[in-house]
Design goal:
Chain lengths: 394, 394
């Protein structure tokens, strides 16, 4: 097949094995709210079938969940995965992804994909915040070759339109955790203006667009940000600025508590960048529906595994002759077929399969956590579930 | 499951999903010899079912075929895989593999496994050949921590007995390609004495043991080595010393031609370390049954892929917008689901999936080559097949 053929017959590409079931924006459906908390059970109808919430979304920054095949990702029970606008803009470039027939075909993932806006990466690369962040957009240097780049709300949306993800994010200003009230106030106002500009630019009828609530741990700023963003009428709402650079757990919970009351019941709520088990539980209890984080794959590459008793490090010599799986109770591919002793051997000898098995386990761990949270909501026992979980998890 | 339980119930380990079909040594069955050449069609009955020859065996040095799961290896059509005695002796140690229930259970591979003797690694690590190589064994330094080590024919077999591979290799002296006739003569005689010592040490009734023919490109030495090794009555015979350090193709073909006439018809013949497509074809034509090489996975990690038109490098910018598979005609997982443009993107961004997809393709390429060679033998057209292959492969 030649490039021209791909371009001329996007719908007929028979080379790949999947097909969209719909061509539409997402639809959130609230099934129930838990009796004692704000925890919500729901579904999201997507272009690739209906998925359940609360949900954890694995991250595939550069159009690949690090080390895993799409089949392995799906086998963990994952539904929506993430990809990163900034990284794909630089390599391979949004035009190549578009020519490939969009991100799904490019990476062979026949499930829903969410793209972030690039905001977080861009702000961490902008060295002189005062000078580099202008009303028009953000000046910064490429992390690959130092080339001067400029990203605007319009450009972020244009890139995401071409990537053809199912859910796009507005381009927001991501302030540092240490930012002053004044800085945050300006940042919130600018983020709303940028959200508006992005929405006006958005052209992809099969792609949903989310607005992002900012405002640090300040009640009035979060309230203002939520109300003004909701006025712009997005397809879903994210809570940002909770996992940028070391925000405290208390500030994260405040940020959620101050934002949630002003978000509409009939739209999905997304807490960006959060993946510690306890934070997912706390987020769900506070009314969050979806979460994403690089944590499960990142700690896997360093030899760490989530377990019900907390994280363990498989590099540890004590696992040398431990012929049990990572977790006896886990149903993931790694736990069904491999021992700690073997995984330790793989890590110890620098073999790729080690990080891959741990990534599978860690993603499955968080997916199972959300599966159990959904059950707990059904049974109105989410606070009990939290207590039981915390009793073991250290 | 505790270590003790594994030790006490090796046969009942239910944690893993496979079982041996037999407990026996291998049996080679010659089906036919091609009309115009010495090429042989055959089968090998193993502890994990009957497999066909000619066959290419992927290498899993440290109890993992680099980057691949056992399921992926099997999906390429592979049967026997290799593991390395020297590397597993050092890490994790043969006692840990034995406690795990043997190499198959340790690495979750329910197919036949062949272990090399460590000879090749040890000789490349022995700095002072004259001083370090003694009649008793070889002194050398660990490639990991420089620790002084000593490997003997007996120790190599004892390690392999514990690893519980299906096929073990005798510990041979691997002379450099530049070795003199005198050096080679002594080396051949010592290798025969070592083969005898190894055979006397061998204790695993479910493990076959192969003898190794050495002698460089000298007709008399190869003849002598083959005849004397066959007298010791091994379960199969390897032709060694053809892929140690840059032997020429001419010398490789001579080594095969000078050895094969003295090997028994009813035993399998293994050309060690050979994996270039043309060398596999030439080896088969000369009467070789099985081959192994790190080549398909090694070049994959550097971005190279085998194709019918020769090797290509997917790092090349010309594949940036090439939305065709590596090979249109290939039935591997990588070619069925991914484009050159995507694989290039993965390589370009350092993503692990890139090398993994290329490894799958390259192994499948060599497996398909042997599948086609088997067909060509059936049809007595192996010389035509070679011509057709060479016409395209550059």
């Amino acid at each position: 097949m030649k490039i021209e053929e791909v371009n001329n017959s996007k719908k007929e590409v028979s080379f790949f094995f999947f097909e969209r079931v719909n061509l539409m924006k997402i639809e959130y459906n609230l099934i129930k709210t838990e009796k004692n908390t704000k925890a919500r059970l729901g579904t999201i109808k997507t272009n690739y079938g209906t998925v359940e919430t609360p949900m954890f979304m694995p991250v595939g920054t550069k159009a690949t969940v690090k080390g895993l095949s799409p089949e392995e990702v799906k086998e963990t029970g994952s539904a929506i995965i993430l990809a990163n606008t900034y990284h794909l803009w630089l390599r391979p470039g949004e035009d190549i992804v578009e020519k490939a027939g969009g991100l799904h075909k490019f990476m062979n993932y026949d499930g829903p994909i969410l793209t972030d806006s690039g905001g977080f990466q861009v702000f961490s690369l902008a060295k002189n915040k005062k000078k580099d962040i202008t009303e028009e957009g953000v000046h910064f240097k490429s992390h690959i070759d130092g080339k001067a780049l400029f990203l605007t709300p319009e450009k972020s949306i244009e890139i995401q339109n071409k990537l053809d993800s199912d859910i796009a994010m507005s381009f927001d200003e991501c302030p540092p955790a240490s930012a002053s009230y004044e800085y945050l106030k300006n940042s919130v106002e600018r983020t709303i203006r940028w959200a508006k500009r992005g929405k006006e630019t958005h052209r992809n009828p099969n792609q949903s667009l989310f607005g992002i609530v900012q405002g640090g741990a300040y009640e009035d700023l979060r309230k203002y940000s939520a109300i003004e963003t909701v006025k712009l009428d997005f397809d879903g709402y994210s809570i940002g600025g909770v996992a940028n650079d070391g925000e405290s757990k208390e500030d994260m919970y405040k940020a959620i508590d101050y934002s949630i009351p002003y978000l509409p019941e009939n739209k999905v709520r997304y807490l960006m960048g959060v993946g510690e088990p306890i934070d997912i539980i706390e987020g769900v209890i506070r009314g969050v529906d979806i979460f994403d984080c690089v944590l499960p794959t990142r700690i896997a590459r360093h030899g760490q595994a989530f377990t019900r008793n907390g994280k363990i490090n498989l590099n540890n010599a004590k696992y040398k002759e431990d012929f049990t799986p990572i977790e006896e109770s886990c149903d993931c591919y790694a736990c069904k077929h491999y021992t700690k002793a073997y995984i330790r051997h793989l890590l110890n000898t620098g073999e790729m399969l080690g990080g891959r098995l741990l990534s599978i386990h860690n993603i499955r761990f968080l997916i199972r956590l959300t599966e159990e949270l959904r059950e707990a909501i059904k049974e109105d026992r989410i606070l009990e579930y939290k207590e039981e979980f915390l009793e073991k998890y250290h």
